[in-house]
């Protein structure tokens, strides 16, 4: 088995993402690429949970820009498949992966395919590991996706699922009223589309109900005391995320256009107030019995 990459070993991946962003100032997937870059350190701390034997076959559901697959395929020789419903994001993930061919661990190969997590066009008992990071919060039918995880995993294979639960997030002092309104509308529009910002607490129940044995469940907390400065990366990602949701929020009647634009402009211009911010992701490792 190879050991973990040395510090700085992720520079090539980060540069490939940054180059893609430079070349595509309006990248597919809205703010997803900027979020992928910004959350690199937190995501990589999860890699030990994705331990697999060399040559393992890995399915990444809702792969996005494929950061999880790419990081795994750097550490180990894996055969990975990334599935997503967004063809443009998948094409970008494929192009970025192509540019990193010599950086991947010898023997690693990654493929990408359009697909729906709840009805996979894949054979039974094919994968050693199925992972899904920040996918389940978007699913209208999480139980269907869990059943598919079980079907495509080999007996003894593992599902590793990371997701949010807003019940474990705290900000102090409270965000400005404008940001509070935008965030409430954002969350509501996600749930109207069938998503669930409290999916984290429900994951073990879904997996146990589908016949998995729960191997571990963890709450990975991060806390910081920071000011999101105007024009800084974290505020820019947040603004891009909210802007990408504008049509959905307005179409659902959650905010009028003028009100949305007023709140977003106020948020963009607000002074940088240092705030305590804690958030946690739920991580479930479940075994296919
Ligand atoms: C927040 S992103 C996470 C991407 C990636 N897993 C990561 O950690 O950066 C969620 C991804 O799930 C995809 N997605 C949403 N619904 C899906 C579904 N029903 N089946 C497969 N992918 C889906 C989206 O297109 C998006 O790329």
Describe the structure.
The model has no long low-confidence stretch (mean pLDDT 93). The chain is globular and about 50 Å long. With 289 residues, the protein is an alpha/beta fold. 39% of the residues lie in helices and 24% in strands. Strands 1, 2, 3, 4, 5, 6, 7 and 8 form an eight-stranded mixed β-sheet that branches. The protein is built from eleven helices and eight strands. β1, α4 and β2 form a beta-alpha-beta unit. Bound molecules: S-adenosylmethionine (SAM). The site of S-adenosylmethionine has 22 residues, from α2, α4 and β2.
Give the SSE map:
Layout (H helix, E strand, L loop, with lengths): L10 H13 L8 H7 L1 H5 L12 E5 L5 H9 L3 E6 L2 H13 L9 E6 L12 E7 L8 H11 E12 L5 E3 L4 H16 L10 H7 L2 E15 L6 H12 L1 H6 L5 H13 L5 E14 L1
Parallel strand pairs: 1-2, 1-4, 2-3, 4-5
Antiparallel strand pairs: 5-8, 6-8, 7-8
Helix pairs in contact: 1-2, 2-9, 7-11
The chain binds S-adenosylmethionine.
S-adenosylmethionine binds next to α2, α4 and β2.
First and last CA, distance: 26 Å
User: Which ligands accompany this protein?
Assistant: S-adenosylmethionine
Q: How much of the polypeptide forms β-strand, as a percent range?
A: 15-25%
Helix content: 25-40%
Nearest-integer average pLDDT: 93
Largest β sheet strand count, sense and barrel closure? 8 strands, mixed
In short:
The chain is of the alpha/beta class and 289 residues long. It has helices at 11-23, 32-38, 40-44, 67-75, 87-99, 142-152, 177-192, 203-209, 233-244, 246-251, 257-269, and strands at residues 57-61, 79-84, 109-114, 127-133, 153-164, 170-172, 212-226, 275-288.
